[in-house]
Write a structure and sequence with these properties.
six-stranded parallel beta sheet, alpha/beta, binds zinc ion
Length: 343
């Protein structure tokens, strides 16, 4: 089969590789669309250590089952599917509690690090275990379905805390995950959602897709503007989809008494922590890691037209031209954000 292989850092080659064979409990999916994750783009230069060559990247994808291994009972060739990016063991304590995102033996498809190498979906075919598959509703396109993985990360983050119906929420950083979070919050009945970013383009996008207000966090008045939008009280829940000290502090300072702050982005490894503010405002802080099976709920939202996925795709390009397009996204050329590669 053809695949886009990261042969050396910053160097992809589109070439023939051996077609993977599904083992017991596994299926082979003919990939119809693979969306490029920020972690793929960051990983291609070696800085993260999680895309060690040679590796076929790609963990956000959709396709049609082409063949099944032994003991596969729930799916058959021809089924339209997407899949969880995480391979988990189904046996450890966290897996048994349904928190598969915290599995002791978690491996991510399309990642190679010191511990494992798991080839992904930037290829004609990818092999995955049956238990990570999700069937697509007829009305959901393959392109939309390839975006369900990042959407599930946003869904998991949004539902880490409860926002009262009719309440207010803020999302800081409206890239792919943050923009999904805005849309999911609205679909769940949150009455006012404030988007915060440093990019006018992204703020416009957020406002076109459900945000009630867009605040430029470079503005020294940003904090005051957010408080003004919430009668001076602050939001019920703030979501930090960026994860640097300034965005974290902005979330803390614009969340109401007894409110919640959910931490999804994690660019900074460490930061200072305003302990007294958190204690005296009785804030609840939640970490949110990946997702834990929220795919069906995301697919339902897309099928019901409650989340606009198409607006978030900058373009679809042939996988054979992957080297060129990966570099364009890496260099932030042409306003490209979220792209899909089509085998
Ligand atoms: Zn991803
Ligand atoms: Zn496990």
């Amino acid at each position: 089969m053809k695949a886009l292989v990261l042969e050396a850092y910053n160097h992809f080659v589109y070439r023939d590789v051996e077609t993977p064979v599904p083992g017991p409990g596994e299926v082979r999916v003919k990939v119809m669309a693979c969306s490029v994750c920020g972690s793929d783009v960051k990983g291609m230069d070696g800085s993260t250590g999680r895309r060690q060559p040679p590796i076929i990247m790609g963990h956000e994808a959709s396709g049609v089952i082409e063949s099944v291994g032994q003991n596969v009972t729930g799916f058959q060739p021809g089924d339209r599917v997407t899949f969880d990016s995480t391979i988990y063991c189904n046996e450890c304590e966290m897996c048994r509690k349904g928190m598969v995102n915290l599995c002791d033996h978690r491996e991510v498809i399309g990642v190679s690090c010191d511990d494992y190498r798991h080839h992904g979906a930037m290829a004609e075919f990818v092999v995955v275990p049956e238990y990570v598959l999700y069937r697509l509703p007829d009305s959901v396109t393959f392109q939309q379905a390839s975006m369900v993985e990042p959407m599930s990360v946003a869904y998991h983050g949004v539902t880490r805390c409860e926002v009262p119906v009719g309440g207010t929420a803020m999302v800081v950083g409206v890239g792919t995950i943050g923009l999904f979070a805005v849309q999911i919050l609205k679909s769940l009945g949150v009455s006012k959602v404030i988007a915060v970013d440093i990019s006018d383009r992204r703020l416009d996008m957020a406002k076109k897709n459900g945000a009630d207000a867009g605040i430029d966090s470079r503005d020294p008045q940003a904090e005051a503007q957010i408080l003004a939008l919430t009668d001076g009280k602050g939001v019920d829940a703030a979501y930090d989809a960026t994860g640097i000290e300034s965005t974290f502090l902005l979330c803390l300072h614009t969340t109401r008494l007894n409110g919640s702050v959910v931490l999804i982005g994690n660019i900074a490894r460490n930061m200072s922590f305003p302990l007294q503010h958190v204690v005296t405002h009785q804030l609840s802080l939640f970490g949110s890691c990946a997702s834990a099976g929220e795919y069906d709920r995301c697919l339902e939202l897309i099928a019901a037209g409650k989340v606009n996925v198409d607006a978030m795709i900058s373009g679809s390009f042939p996988l054979s031209e992957g080297d060129k397009w990966m570099h364009k996204v890496y260099n932030r050329e042409d306003g490209l954000d979220k792209i899909l590669l089509i085998p």
